[in-house]
Design goal:
By secondary structure, the protein is an alpha/beta fold. It folds into three domains: 3-211, Rossmann fold, CATH 3.40.50.1000; 222-260 and 368-505, L,D-transpeptidase catalytic domain-like (Beta Barrel), CATH 2.40.440.10; 268-363, no CATH class. It has ten helices and 28 strands. Helix 6 (144-161) packs antiparallel against helix 7 (171-186) and helix 7 packs antiparallel against helix 8 (205-214). The model is unreliable at 144-151 and 162-217 (pLDDT under 50).
Amino acid sequence: MFERFFPDTTVSSTYAIDYEKLYEEGYRGILFDIDNTLVEHGKEATEQAKRLFSRLKKIGYECCLISNNKKKRVHSFNEKIGVHTVFNAHKPAKKGYFYAMELMNTRPENTIFVGDQLFTDIFGAKRIGLKNFLVKPINEKEEIQIVLKRYLEKIVYLRYSNKSRVIMMTRTVFILLISSLCTLSYCTPRTEPAQTEVLIPVDSISKDSAVIVETLPLRIEIEKELLYDKHTLEDTYPYKDTTREFQWEKMKERLSLLESIQREPSQWAILQNYKNRNGEAPLVKVFKRDAYKRVSDTLGVERYQSVPLYLLTDTVTPEIYGRDGSLVRIKAMDEDSKFARIQTVYDGEEEWYAPKKYIKQIGDTVVFDKAIFVDRHNQNIATLEHVGSKWLVRSMNPATTGQHRPPYAQETPLGMYVLQEKKSRMIYLVDGSKETGGFAPYANRFTNGAYIHGVPVNAPRKSLIEYSPSLGTTPRSHMCVRNATSHAQFVYDWAPVNETIVFVLE
């Protein structure tokens, strides 16, 4: 139970880490907590901190400050540092970490995290596989909710420092302690006007941790029993001067989640707003507008084709956006209300209010026995089916995901989605015009404008193309996942709408 909180390395200070050696080992990005990690709580950047970041930049690192604190605090500290920032990160939720890596253009395998708290910093970093350093807090004087977290941390420290000792503590007591912490965290007075430049900091640590403590990971068995055997890749295979692979362990983690959420019947639903069919989402409290006037929340989720999610204490202005195609549980659906109370199932079981018009109910009898895995890093795709006690691999193929080329092309978004719609021929337009550019065969839509489809056929050609040499190489599509056409047809026939889960991983 405790191992999930154990840091990879403990050090006396952020400033005692051998960053030069880590760079030689291949690490290229560093995420830093701020308060009590770099400086005392609430203090501005010291000369020591300034020198550290100057040194890191000279070494060649990309750096990002990632904090659960407000925008004002983070930006104020960063004025004399000049690195990327993520505020209101909701650590240990995964989204903030992934967004930070997106800003730095790094991946989990070449990114480091440095922080001073187990249940936020280290736990969050470990959830996505970041090499992590736990540092000693600079100042022992802390807020009451953090003091209580430190008490719980001592329990983990004891286990971490002396694994041979038997620590007798029931899970019930541990959960009660975390629940008490959660209550105190949420009782901290906060007042924020609607649509300001500052978000209400939501400390999801205790709630998220309690869920994970109660639900042990399931044992997942994967065997190969292919139903589609064309263009099949090996578990590991060469690509240029590198080696690519199917990330089976990451797949097992997500399949464990998928099985866990289905242990008891739930009223399932899908967040839907394809092409803003259900109305443009209102502006969140804090938003970013890029050079192309596209609006996104602080976690990088764009307003277009998204669903507004509201805090349970505020249904006036949404807090964040939920991606089209996301699977959620309905917790309450009152007839007299315009809102439904929903619970997310990916990146922590958080509860929100969402307008009913953005919610498609799919019932409590649905069983998600089929899963599709899209790997952005390795540019491959795998389909798996739950049969008996095992997950059987049905196909292993090269794929090509979306590239970052605004304003018309963007990355295939990471996350967990429900397959929502199928088109035998998905017509696409020439960028920036209303002219038909061609069609993509056997298109399976899972989020926004992202489809799993075959090799695109550019007009005026009409005949299908089985394979393209670009498959499995580098991101090239607008958001979609390109496949060999026969494999796209296999997915089209094999995967039922509203009953198939699509995982996009890095």
